């Protein structure tokens, strides 16, 4: 289908679904929805305002075999320069945060249904001061960390000032200062069906309940590793839609640690110019951070159009003004080839080109 035909079919289909609520925007600019400020327009951008509306949206898109992409905070994303003939589904409205005692983990959060299918439950008899923090998939990760500080809760300090959303952090198994998000995960609520036409061929049944992937208990899931999660394409939950996550936190925040993390990110120049964050994952084979490998190849400051490998950090590509996805791709290819020739190591992208 063409983008125009898609809109003519999809918009009324979504509007007529009794469970869908939220915004529908044709020809939506994508650059403002990414941290690198690059991208053309989406044929259709849909912004469900509840978990139920998100489920309805995915069900409609899948039934009509419409390709789609789930967007969080856009911190690791580079959209194409021209029109994107795909529906972009934003979870930014699903940003609720709530807190409860670790001994009482059955309370739903946001608009989550009252029941969830689970492969395990959090242990009773939690240590005094143990709490569970619930965050919707669209909750900014930095806001979750700030919420913990405001409530004197420890556990997320290392993720202070990290861009993006909780859903993206879970999907990527975000790692900061030798801590990864799965270290503090209790569970992830999700349902099948991302990808439009590539997921399960059958519509989600009604009434529906989210799946719950438990992580932080004896029956927890083991599909987590460096920058890997079960929700990536090769994982056991690949293609599923992340609805929200729960984290193990405890009374006794470390504000000095949080302040140091924020100051260190600023000192490293993460926020000087628009960027998509770290371009490459670190290679265990190399024994050095990828930024050092790019630096040793003499590429700091290298330019392609409006994009530049940051002069202050070899693993960041910045938008100096008017950068395109093609510019970023050119620098990624340049860095990979130079590092391969210099060290024999093939760098793996962390950023995602849509």
Element pattern in H and E: HEEHEEEEEEHEHEEEEEHEHEEEHE
Terminal CA distance:
19 Å
Count the helices. How many?
Answer: 7
Strand content: 15-25%
- Poorly predicted ranges: 105-126, 194-202
Detailed description of the structure:
By secondary structure, this protein is an alpha+beta fold. The chain has three domains: 3-90, 2-Layer Sandwich (Uridine Diphospho-n-acetylenolpyruvylglucosamine Reductase, domain 2), CATH 3.30.43.10; 97-256, Uridine Diphospho-n-acetylenolpyruvylglucosamine Reductase, domain 3 (2-Layer Sandwich), CATH 3.30.465.10; 271-353, Alpha-Beta Complex (Uridine Diphospho-n-acetylenolpyruvylglucosamine Reductase, domain 1), CATH 3.90.78.10. 23% of the residues lie in helices and 24% in strands. Strands 6, 7, 8, 9, 12, 13 and 14 form a seven-stranded mixed β-sheet that branches. It has a four-stranded mixed β-sheet with strand order 1-2-5-3. It has a four-stranded antiparallel β-sheet with strand order 15-18-17-16. The longest helix is centred in the last third of the chain and has 19 residues, at 325-343. It is globular. The model is unreliable at 105-126 and 194-202 (pLDDT under 50).
